[in-house]
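Can't paste images in this forum, so I'm doing it all in text. The chain is below; anyone willing to post the predicted structure tokens underneath?
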Amino acid sequence: MTTHFITAEIDLQETPTQLQEAIEAELKAPGEPLRWAITNVDVEQQKASVEAIVTVAEAHQPQA
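Text version of the structure:
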């Protein structure tokens, strides 16, 4: 198992709960999120920038 730093752009949602669910769903694609933070919100584009640390099982590691 390894850890990876990833960034993602998420569309803003109507409620904080929906935003959290959208972020967690996006982060589960590359691995299991350990922690994440919203680092920027672009109100004009209606996007939130998220930085996260995820764990990836050896069998699921991306090829370099």
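The longest strand covers residues 32-42. Residues 2-59 form one domain.
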